[in-house]
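Retro notes (design track)

What went well: tokenization of the new backbones is finally stable.
What didn't: we kept losing track of which sequence belonged to which structure.
Fix going forward: every design gets posted as structure first, then sequence, in one message. First example under the new rule, 398 residues:
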């Protein structure tokens, strides 16, 4: 690692890092009472990055060998403005500070294959026992064991073991020729033992309730109206319409609706938005980000006032601020970008009933998980014409 980083930094780049990753993934799916798919994959590699000013040079290899590492290092160093190499002192290695937000276990090994299949079969049995109108059940179980290590040009060395699991359940209900879908599920950074009878029962209840509610739902009336959103999946609107607009790269380039507005009011009083990568066991949490920085609890909007953006090292350096622990990579084959961890709005001082009662006409969708396609420039997002949440928005206040 020292030789590879030395090859890069000797050419006078502003920053450089090596990102090593080893990932094992497994998935099982059940449909119509049959385990239809089972998959297992292993991926590993290293990404090599050099940064000079705003420019980034990047190379990666799935061969973690000294020869491949040095070859990638010599490739990316060409981004430097320096015409030739100079002599640099290799910084002393220092272990990055981090947290222990989740266990460093391999979730794939926490249940054997037979137990995983039985878990999916239990889901189907519970769902079909809930109501005779349930005609089809689909369930999926996914596990991932991800190990990363980052070596930075300043001598920082950081590593993380990231378990991740998810159980997804979907049900189709039929009544008088009409079919509707309901879904549920969840997961996080822990082992498969998390999915005990009580947790599975909660997912089943959520999916069945949504499907049966949809059977009796009528379309929401046309026209503009106030929409009252609760906690849970409706938070995806905050993620898409607001969270992406607070990412450092968009704001540095001036393409976000929030660019240059720190210290200004961007939301109503009482609105406080956080991005917090330090919540134990949550799927968005990280002990260290993909650049080796410890995750943080970042206040983005406080009482309606914009306080800051989420940053990776490149954009933080160019904007004259510190990284916020939000450098994220899709994999070793991708460069890091400033992206969200767990983004949410703090609760206010009004009860849900009080909020609904204060509005003459409103719809209250219990879920709204279909929003996507962000536009940071407009601070907006789009959704399909018939998102599941609005189909079940039956409650209108006269």
């Amino acid at each position: 690692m020292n030789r590879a980083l030395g090859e890069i930094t000797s050419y006078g780049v502003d920053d450089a890092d090596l990102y090593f990753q080893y990932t094992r993934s497994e998935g099982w799916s059940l449909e119509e009472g049959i385990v239809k798919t089972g998959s297992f994959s292993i991926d590993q590699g290293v990404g090599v990055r050099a940064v000079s000013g705003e420019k980034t040079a990047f190379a990666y290899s799935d061969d973690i060998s000294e020869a491949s590492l040095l070859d990638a290092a010599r490739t990316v160093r060409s981004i430097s403005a320096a015409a030739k190499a100079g002599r640099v002192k290799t910084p002393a290695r220092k272990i990055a500070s981090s947290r222990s937000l989740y266990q460093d276990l391999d979730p794939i090994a926490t249940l054997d294959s037979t137990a995983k299949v039985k878990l999916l079969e239990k889901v189907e049995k519970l769902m079909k026992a809930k109501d005779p109108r349930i005609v089809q059940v689909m369930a999926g179980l996914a596990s991932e064991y991800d190990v990363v290590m980052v070596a930075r040009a300043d001598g920082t060395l950081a590593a993380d073991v990231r378990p991740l699991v998810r159980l997804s359940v979907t049900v189709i209900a039929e009544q008088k020729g009409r079919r509707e879908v309901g879904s549920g599920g969840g997961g996080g950074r822990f082992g498969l033992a998390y999915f005990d009878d009580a947790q599975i029962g909660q997912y089943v209840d959520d999916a069945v309730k949504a499907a049966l509610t949809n059977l009796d739902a009528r379309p929401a009336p046309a026209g503009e109206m106030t929409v009252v959103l609760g906690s849970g999946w409706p938070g995806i609107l905050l993620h898409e319409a607001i969270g992406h607009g607070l990412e450092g790269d968009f704001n540095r380039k001036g393409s976000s609706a929030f660019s240059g507005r720190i210290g200004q009011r961007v939301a109503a009083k009482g609105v406080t938005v956080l991005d917090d990568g330090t919540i134990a066991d949550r799927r968005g949490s990280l002990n260290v980000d993909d650049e080796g920085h410890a995750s943080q609890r970042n206040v983005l909007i406080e009482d309606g006032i914009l306080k800051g953006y989420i940053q990776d090292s490149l954009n933080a350096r160019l904007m004259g601020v510190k990284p916020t622990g939000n450098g994220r990579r899709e994999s070793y084959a991708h460069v890091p970008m400033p992206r969200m961890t767990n983004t949410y709005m703090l609760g206010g001082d009004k009860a849900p009933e009080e909020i609904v009662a204060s509005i003459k006409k409103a719809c209250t969708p219990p879920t709204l998980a279909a929003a996507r396609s962000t536009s940071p420039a407009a601070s907006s997002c789009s959704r399909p014409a018939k998102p599941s949440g609005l189909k079940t928005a039956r409650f209108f206040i006269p």
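Added context from the reviewer: The chain has two domains: 2-216, 226-391.
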